[in-house]
Structure formats: structure tokens, C-alpha cells
Amino acid sequence: MKAFTYERPTTLADAAKAIMAKPNAKFIAGGTNLLDLMKLEVETPTHLVDVNRLPLDKVEDTSDGGLKIGALVRNSDLAADPRVRKNYGVLSRALLAGASGQLRNKATTAGNLLQRTRCYYFYDTTKPCNKREPGSGCSAIGGFNRILAIMGTSDECIATHPSDMAVAMRVLDATLETVSPDGSDRKIPIADLHRLPGKTPNIETNLKPGEMITAVTLPPPPKGVQIYRKVRDRASYAFALVSVAAVVDAEGGMIKQARMAFGGLAHKPWRVEKAEQVLAGAKANAEAFAQAGEDVLAGGQGYGHNDFKFPLVRRTLASVLTTAAHSA
Amino acid sequence: MINMTNPVGPTPLDKPGLVGQPLDRIDGPLKVSGRATYAAEYHDEHPLYGFVVQAAISKGRLDEIDTTAAEKAPGVRLVLTYKNALKQGPRGTSGNPQLEGPSIDHHGQPIALVVADTFEQARAAAYLVKPRYAAEKGEYDMGSSLAKSFVPKSNNGVPADTASGDLTAAFTNAPVKVDVTYTTPPQTHAMMEPHATIAVWNGDSLTLYTANQMLMRGTDMVAGTLQIPKDKVRMVSSYIGGGFGGKLQVEADAILAAMAAKVLQKPVKVVLTRQQIFEITKHRTDTIQRVKLAAGRDGTLTAIGHESWSNNTPGDTFYESAAQATRSFYAAPNRMTAHRLVTLDLPHSSSMRAPGEAVGLLALECAMDELAAALNMDPIELRIKNEPQEDPEKGRPFSTRSFVPCLRKGAELFGWSKRNATPGQVKDGAWLVGMGMSGAIRGNPMLTAKASVTLDKNGIATVRSSMTDIGTGSYTILAQIAADMLSLPMARVRVALGDTAFPAAPGSGGSFGANSAGSAVYDACNVLRGKLLQAANLPPDSTFNNGNVTGLGRTVSLTDLVGPNGLEADGAADPGDSRKAFNQQSYGAHFAEVGVDRDTGEIRLRRMLGVFTAGRILNAKTARSQAIGGMTFGVGAALTEDLVIDKRFGGFVNHDLAEYHVAVHADIPAIDAVFLPELDDHSSAMKSKGIGELGICGAGAAVANAVYNATGVRIRDYPLTLDKVLNGWAAANKTGDAVSQRKAG
């Protein structure tokens, strides 16, 4: 770990000033990922701006019937919020499927969105990694890649985004609120937060330098059954091999609307509109579910050890949609 | 001196007492309140901090190692490399030299130690050490290197190969047979406490506060490495946060800390990080195992063959004795076992909990399940059918063997009769449910040991021994033995362990700890009883009761007999010929029920039971903890644990506990262990056997057999992950039959 300086502002304005005052400064909230990366010198910030004292830790109702989640709301608190439990079950379940109790107590909403990949080679500074060291190569391609991406990959990177929470927020069409150091604010649909790796896997989001997520807003609760199904190697404390967040509105064996987002597949929560369009108005049967699976996986590529994710997505999706259609 | 050549006969422990009771650990309150001092916590020594720099290549040499920037970094006192390391003895059973030269034998090998005033300074400066390598091509894949395998030297006098009868002929002629190859991956011990040492020199004497399971052997290795007399080395391991074989030897933390402390003339602390432990210390090798079983139609085995390949670093002769248990487990006239070693440029492999049996039974006990299926016979009945009356290879009697009672009792308690023998038939919602079982067998060694006991004028007895407690309960069982022998309550017995200043005991490893140190404590107490009787002028048939001794119509308090300075007695124990005259093993039977998600192939344990016999149980509570801990280990071995070799670069891909998956609480919903009563007076003075490793032996095979029963998919490459289940189903859909499947790539 490289020596760094540290400050703990109490206002947004001070935080914005602090992040721009020194080169290579970084925000730190829960620190559940950043500190590990700093110990390994995968991340080497020279200055940490601790945002934990900023007034961003509330979950509030919005005027349109949705929910505004402060950036510093802890994962445990968000999962336990009665409004989330009642109206956004997919989010509560996704949060509780992630990490461990201790980590969820520390981890924050914005920090969870911005956590970095769990690709083994990203953490191993003795190996090439384009995300860590642009241009050095990708060790995962041709290496052990069982947990890595099959969708939206590039020749430079096959990392996945590891969050469960983000997958649920993606299916709920969440919007991020941010402020920039110049004081301007903007709203970013969650679909536009994370980038695919392309030629620049080191650039993971569309946030601008110093731009800070202050809140995540959820639209009014969607109609239908909400499911989060996480498939993993052990029953707790394991990242998703594949996860499915689904909101399915079905009646009498017909699907009115199905929304689906996937974790464990790509550099960002994966969602395919075509698959949802095909399901809208379709009979809830195996054939429709299989077609949805094909549409979700269109254009994907396996890298050997992770080839099993293709059948796993098809099977898990069919199971989730069957359960949803039957419980509607 | 207790010598186990002759059976121990009636002892004071035969009457009901504290031994056997489920007493809480006497060190428990210290541990939960943070007052048990672990190796890294001797803060009064005010040590400097060392951080290890590791090789980034797997084979080759250092062309240059530039330490200039690190030496100039804040707080740095020393950067130790091969250029300024102390001269050390050769690598071997009494040497683990570090920073010997520029040669790199494996990925992650220590190439420098940076010592600074604080841990943070040392770690930061460690990243400033700039090595330049001349890399060479290495060999990292055992499967493609089998042609280069060789017969290893014998392990502790146990031969690599054995054979009797004519395996080939018997196998060829048998009506029912299986010939199957299983693989197990590398594994890491994943104990909670990392390897840690504080080294303190006082003149030419060295004290190491360190996490080590076998301190006497440790002083040999430290002395041999540093080329100093053994009596100048003191090792202290009062409390150890788990070992599982990973702390049997002196590792780089201790040698590097000792060298740096010598150079700086200041105490130095070195704690390995979790990531460093994976490659700097030993791991369990991967194995390839081929098992051949042949039987008549009635299930009588006619041939048993078990071959195993494992690997190690160049020059390291340890091999995984995976076929060793097969030599004793089942009767058959035609037999063969063989071990082969392959040299690979990987980190060192060595013992991990139940070396040999833990992975050997994953193959043998699944092959037995396959044979039972081929015979259309219950797997328990198949095992009972082939129960030997004596050691099947050497014809020696068993000291005790209660395998069949374990099978019968376990079947009854678990509800085995409800199992549907046809795979894939039992459903519970989205789950396919299956039951599986396996036998357990583990060698029961004993080594020479010493202990002392003092009784002071206040009636407090203190036991001393360099035995260790690695979380097993050594403190507690030794207190129970002494309490019963001296007729004292637990509150009046103290136990001091984990210090080579105390009488020599071998420590914790190979399930020999309780047999060895316990017998020495028993003997010390027996000697003390003699001294007390002498002081009381009472005959040997006097009785000790409630802190008094009664004989010849007189009752005398023990405290009145010890005098103002107390009384001390030394004890010693020796296995004698007991292991040569008798085949000594502990036994058990595992039963597992799993659910397999019919959509995702996820495997989850639903419940598990182990029924064991291991002689007299010294503490029902710590014994059960040992057993279910071992079984949990077995569940991890079956389902999740996989230290992945990068076959391009060498070294391990996953090296933290987020990606090396041991079983977590949620994976172990309902687990229990039962010990059946047994006494073995050829085993130890307590008539007990070792139990530290029995729980893992066969446990994973029971889980794997349950997965087959649930799904019809026979997976022969551990761990059994969901991708292998899906592959098995895909293959079965093509053939319309239950099939086995092999790992791709």
C-alpha cells in the first residue's frame, strides 16, 4: 500500500473541492473493495476523500411514488428498509444475496455500484491485465476464466461486474443522481453508468472526473412478481456465476410484461430489450422462455471454462420465468 | 515410562470421572475475551516489522534485484535478499533455508524481506524492490507429465508400492468390476490464523514466538537452517489459530524473522498475508487416482488396485499417500497399491489434514459405490461383505476394529433404509434429493513424549509439556486426564503447553497428539501418585479420591503430603512395538443427504451424520467438534475447494478466501457426529485413539455418492461443481442413460 493523505469533508461542496485539489484522489465510503485493492497496490490513490460524513444516508419517498436512496445508505439498511422489502423485493433479495453480513454493514449504495471486478488476474499484479495496466494484455483469455464474462466481451477484457444490487437496480430502471466538482448535477439512467470493456477496460463508468453519485432513485414500484435468483458455488459469500433479476407481470398463463437483468455475464448488469419484447404478450410456456434465453445470449462468446454459463442462463431463466408466471 | 508394547491394563481412568465428559474448553474464556496470546501478539517485544517480497515468475533466476529505492523508503531498517542473507544449512527435514540464492523454484517464492519501523512502511517499501528475472519454461501440469513420474522414497518407512496375489488375472476373470480414474485438485489449509513469528535474540539464543504445530521438530529445523545449536532455540506457540498440517514445519516467516532480527539485533515480526500463505507455505497436491475393484456376483471382492500420482517441487520428496488406507480397509486376495511422484515447478506440497486418506478415500469410497451400483447391492452390505478379520496385507491383527458397528448404527440413525437406490428418483420441489455413504479409516499413530506435573502446597496441579493446542482441545483433555489421575476437580488443574522449555512432546499432527502427550501426562501423574503414596507411607492399593488418599484405614489430604515446595514428577510415553504388532486405525461411517437444483445443478448439503469409533473419547464436546470440523472439511473438498493452477504461468490463480471456497455456515445446515463406545488398550495409556483427522476421511465421498444418487451423474473430478452436473445431464440426454463425465480442458 502506498502512503496517502486523507481528509473527511462534511459538505458536498468541500468534497468536490477536495477531490479536484490533488491528482489521483479517490472517494472512499465503506472501503470494502478499495482498501483491499490498495493493499495489493492495484489501486494507488495519493489522497482519499472520506465521504462518510456527507448527509447522503437517507431513504426517502419521492413525489412520483418512487424511492430516493442516498449514496451512503448501507447495503444492510437498504435491504431491511420496509418500503424496499414491500415494493422492491428484487432489490432487497439481491442485496442480501451479496457478500457477507459484515461487508453489507459497511458497504454503501454508491460504492456497491462502483466496486471493481473480481477477475482473479486483475488482483494478481504479477500477471498482465488490461484493466489494471492498459496494453499489457488479458490473462483471463486463455487462462482460468470460469467466473468471467460471456456477453459484451472484447479481446482486451472479459471481466464481469460483480454486484448483485446493481442487477436489481437495472431491472428496476433506477436513475443515478450525481454532482460534479463545478457544482452541476445530472441524472444518469443506470443503463448508462457502466461501460463495456471495448478497447478501454480500464475505464469502467461514464462518470466524469470528480463526479460523485449522491443518490439512486427508483421509479414507482413495477407491476408483477419480483424475483432475484443467484446461482453460485456455495450458499453464501460467493459471487454470482449467473444471477437473474426479474419483474414479471403475468395473468392467466399470458405474460403482459417481463423485465430481466442478468449478473455474472458481462462488464455491466446485462439486459436485452429484444428478449423482453418477445415475451410481452406471449404465452408463458417453455418455448417462449427458451426463445427469451436465446435472445439474451445472442452474440455471446464463451472462453472455455465459462462455456457452461450459456446452458446455465437458459435453465435459470426458464426456472425464474416459470416460477414468476405461476405465482402471478 | 509408559510403553505400549504391552496392553495398558486396568487404570484409574476406567472408573467414571471427568475424562469423557463434554466439558467446556478451559482456554475458552481466554480466547473469547482476547487474552490468549497468539504468535503475532507479543507486543511487549516492540518488534520491527518485516514484509516478504515474492517472485513473480515460476522458474528461472534473479538477474538483478534492486533494493535501492526500498532502502531509502521511510522507516526502512533492512532489505534482506540472497546477497546479504545469513549462511544457512541445506533444505531437507532439518532445513528450510530462505533467500539462498538467485534461483527461483516456484511462483511466490520469497526473494526479499523488507524490515521497517511499522508494518505499513515495510509493506509500502516491499513494492519498491525491483527484481529483474531470467525466466525459464516450467512444467505445471501433472496430467501431461505422467510419463516423467517416478517411484518416490518411502514415507516414514511406509513403502510406496505394495502387491500381493495376482491383480491382473483376478481383475480379468471377475464377473463384476470397475476401473475408474478420479482426480482431486490442489487444496490449501485455510486456517484462521496466518503464519506469524516474532523473533527475539538474546546473545546467541533465539526465541521464536511462532505459530507451529510441532515445536520439537521445529527447533531441529530452525537450528539446522540457521546453523546454531538446538539448545539455543526456544519456540513458543501457546495458542494457535488452526493448523490442519499447514504449520507442521517451520516456514519462511520464522526463518526470515530470525535472520533479520540477528542482523538488526532487534526483535522482528513477520506475518504472512493470506495471499502470501497460498504460495509461500505448503499446500495439498492435486492427485490422479486409478482404482480397480473386482468382485464375484455376491459382492465378494477378489481384487483391489489403487494407484495415485501426486506432484511436488524439484527436490521435495513428499508425496500424497492416497492409496495407503486401501491397504487396510477391505479384504481381497489380490491386491496392489502404487504411488508415483511427478516433479513440477509449483509451490511446495505437503501434509494437509489426513494426508493420504483425505483424498484417497474420495476415490476408493466412490469406486466402492460404483461397484455396489454395478452389483445392484446396497453399498453398506458390500462393505460388510468384505470386512477383513485381520490386516489384509500383512496379516497382523487389528488392535480394535469397529467399522461394521459404525455402518450399522449410522444406517439406523440416518434412516438409510428410506434411500431409493435408483438415482434421480426423489424430488422435493425444485430439488433432486439423494443419499450417500462412505467408510472412514485413519491411522492411529503415537510418538514418544514427555510431560511433567507438579502439585503445590495449595493443591493446584500444573501439567507442562511442549505439546500444542491448535484449537483441538489439548489443554482441556490433558487437564481432564490429570484431574482424574490425581482425583482433583478441573478448577485445581493448570496446563501449560506450547513452549520448548517444557518437557518434549511431538505436538499436534497426524492425530498422534492426544495419544502421545496424553500418555505422558498419564505417566507423570502415575509417578506423582507413587511419590504421594511414599510420602504418606501408604501401599499401592490405596485409593485417591477427592484430593485425598485413603489406605490402611487412614485418609490423608494430598496437600499435606507435598511439602512447602510441592512435589514434581516427570512422565514419558513410548509406543514401543504396539504399532508393529497391531494394525491400528480409527473407523467411521459417513452419511450425507444432498439436494441438487434440477435447473441450475447447484448442490447443497441437507444433512450429514458421522458415526465413529476411536477408543475412549476423552471429551465428548471437543471430540464432536473435531469430528464435525473434519466432516465440514470433507464437504468443502467434495463441493467447492479448488486451488487452481495456472498451467501457463505456474502458481495459483485464486489466492484469497473470497475465491478459494471453503464451506461456510450456510453450506452446513445440519451436521452431527456420534462416537460409539470403545476401549483400545494397545493404543494409548487412556485406551483412546487419535481423532483429529478421522472426521474428514471419507466425508467428501459420502457427499459425492449422494450427488450420484440424487442425479444419476457420476462426477470423478473433484470438486463437484454445478457445471459438471450440467455437463453430465447434457451427456445423459444424448445417451438416455446416467453417465459419468470428465472435465473438459
Automatic annotation (TrEMBL), chain A:
Pfam families per record: CO_deh_flav_C, FAD_binding_5
Keyword entries, A-Z: FAD, Flavoprotein
Source species, domain of life: Bacteria
This protein's record includes keyword Cell membrane: no
GO molecular function, one term: FAD binding
Presence of the UniProt keyword Transmembrane in the record: no
FAD-binding PCMH-type domain boundaries: 1-223
Annotated PANTHER family: ALDEHYDE OXIDOREDUCTASE FAD-BINDING SUBUNIT PAOB, XANTHINE DEHYDROGENASE SUBUNIT C-RELATED
Protein name, UniProt field: Xanthine dehydrogenase family protein subunit M
Organism: Lichenifustis flavocetrariae
TrEMBL record, chain B:
Source organism, top-level taxon: Bacteria
Species the sequence originates in: Lichenifustis flavocetrariae
Region (Disordered): 1-22
Boundaries of every Aldehyde oxidase/xanthine dehydrogenase a/b hammerhead domain copy: 33-137
InterPro entries: Ald_Oxase/Xan_DH_a/b, Ald_Oxase/Xan_DH_a/b_sf, Ald_Oxase/xanthine_DH-like, AldOxase/xan_DH_MoCoBD1, AldOxase/xan_DH_MoCoBD2, AldOxase/xan_DH_Mopterin-bd_sf
Name listed for the protein in its UniProt record: Xanthine dehydrogenase family protein molybdopterin-binding subunit
Gene Ontology molecular-function annotations: iron ion binding; oxidoreductase activity
Lineage: Bacteria, Pseudomonadati, Pseudomonadota, Alphaproteobacteria, Hyphomicrobiales
Transmembrane segments: none
